[in-house]
Request: fold
Amino acid sequence: MGKLGSFRISVGVALVAWAAAAAIAQQPARYDGDRVVRVEVADDAQLETILNLTDDVWSHEFGAPGEIEVRLSPAQFAALEGLGLPFELMIDDVQAAIDEQLTPAGRGTFDQFLRLSQVRDHMAALSAARPDLAQRINIGPSLQNRPLEVLRITGPGDSSQRPLVWLQGCQHAREWITVMVTLYLADRLVNSYDSDPAVRALLDRAVVCVIPVVNPDGYEYSWNTARLHRKNMRNNGDGSLGVDLNRNWSVAWGLSNGSSGAPSSDTYRGPAPFSEPETTAVRNYLATQSRVAAFLDIHSFSQLILWPWAHQTRRSPDNERQAEIWYDVCREIVDELGAYYIANQGNQGLYPASGTAVDWGFGTFNVPAATFELRDRGDFGFLVPPTQIQPNCEEIWPGVLRLLSETTQPLRLRPMPVAPAFAAPNSTLDFTVRIRSSRPGFSVGSVQLAYRTDNGQPAVVPMTPGGCVDCWTATIPSGPCGTTLGLSVSATRSDGAVAHWPDRAFQPELQIPVRSATIVSLADFNTSNGGFAVSGVSSAGRWVRGTPQATFTATGQAEPSGGYPLGSGGACWVTGIATTTDPEQSDIDGAPTELASGLLNIAGLSDPVVQFPYWLYSDGNEVLAAVSFGTPPNPKPLPALPALGRWSVAQFRVRDWVPTGDIARFGFFVSGYVPGTVTEAAIDDFALLDLSCPPLPGDMNCDGFVTVSDIGGFVLALTDAAQYAVVFPSCNIARGDVNGDGFVTVSDIGVFVGLLTMR
Ligand code: 0X9
Ligand code: ZN
Reply:
């Protein structure tokens, strides 16, 4: 799975203090002719040679054999060439890239990087233009006495009890793109309130606080003096400058694995938690707010979404909720050229970070929290050109709307295990939704399911508890082939507040096609791998094809007893096959382990669907993450699959995930980090289906029924075939051959009349 699989993604932490060296300079430091290169090293000796060559490493994770990204002066670059190691040029002139950043891509606000004063002016202009929506609040001052300015955005009315979503940028001075993206989010929220009903609905029920620059002193310094400065402007008294604000928060502060006690370090945590006025100001402001609902800390670069914990691999008790929400958010963040983000627990395959804002936000409020790493993936790193500002803003926007949607309703509703991709015609559909309160002290009162065929009158039925833990379920009729089943759920909380699924701010109902499914291909894994392949770094319990041997824990069955029962045999893909009765002996430890399907040819299919039974048991809050790949490769997360401890069938409409191209691929990955807990997954009977409606004999107008309204078409078919084709261009005249003799003639009349009177 390439990058997705290995997670060896460079994250923008220059290990060695480039900034500190520049700190004493009065003039802007210059980097003329410096290059950033990605060098391939085969062994430790080669790695050592490169580390001796430079003092500025851009990649955070490196090792031998592997790749390392470094900045080199012209002389160091000449030395590298002399070594004969394979390398790739990332930035061929660092100073030119810095200069390029100062060249606007156009005349718009978001075509250029803005200085602090311009950011503040823009915030002031927004609140001046819409005092009814945006309030400017100074929560500062910073160390050097600059205001720390927040835009508090919400619809008219009393907002004191509304859920509050916190969006902060630029803790790290050099991460300029984060300033622009957060400012854009504030701008767009304010400016689309009148025109976008979704934004209006979200802002009428929630407060969004945006602080584009948490580190204004460092940001100014990055503009004026040292472009690549990271920390704030604390004079540490030993000649070094700055505390890493994102190591200065109180949760897990001070761990030496994930921060440094050395003032010169770029990850210096400061002398005490909240020793810095910038972090303290955020803490104090949020302490005055009644309902923090989500916390987002925006950084660059690497295109990642990282949820807690950042300081340890151990999963939080809330891991499942975090995974579900952040995969959903991540899925929205895709631009038309295929830029994508990867969502992950913050310490999985990445380096640990302690005393971070994300861990503080989660640890303090117990709400969805994440670190975003914005563009790019390392081509320009911190020095992304202004041409990328606007695209980065636009791709993040729908993710933030999704975050608002998922965190600001009175209850959290999720279809279980996922929303159905289709319903079988003239049959029934079982629909299950899981409902949880995001606030303690509340429970679910009543739940109703509304459904209708096409745009008809909705019927409403009560949902009853069942299906899974915290779940409610109902069975409804599907309707005739070719129609669309519209479905929505309303859940009333114990205090009377109502939540809807889907979120009414975005869509009134889920639209489910009622279609017959034909199997295009089916891999039952009994005698072959079905084109599937395994990758990943899990240390134990990797995906393997075979027949599972049931294991049990105190709380349930961990490993299935064989493959999916409805399949034709016993084997499937499973994460380690038990050889003893101890479930810990065969589950996943370490992670992730990844399973990818072969290439699926979807050319010519009218409405392809992938369907597979999966098993997931986890007492460590893991989800099974499914990911799609289109052509060109464009992994897009599917909804996180919950751990139900039994076989459940998941379906996805392929065109929702792979909108263009003839080739699709699906991947599944799962982790099992928590020592002493058990995580087991299995996949079986992976099917590619196609949805369609077989022509209904006698349905001359193709409305899905044979009724008197077909008489006109039938007569036309008998008397004037050419005219029939004109009147019913998308119907096939062969539907008139109701007696099946291969012709549409008067001898079909008797059967046709029979069909009409039967109904
Ligand atoms: O190290 C940081 O503070 C963040 N990365 S950055 O390159 N922007 O400096 C990451 C913070 C979250 N880290 C983890 N979840 N490991
Ligand atoms: Zn950062």
Q: What stands out?
A: Residues 11-13, 172, 175, 246, 299, 306, 310, 346-347, 350-353, 356, 358, 371, 373 surround N~2~-sulfamoyl-L-arginine (ligand 1) (CB under 6 Å). Residues 389-407 form the longest helix (19 residues). The two ends are 53 Å apart (CA to CA). The chain is about 20% helix and 25% strand.
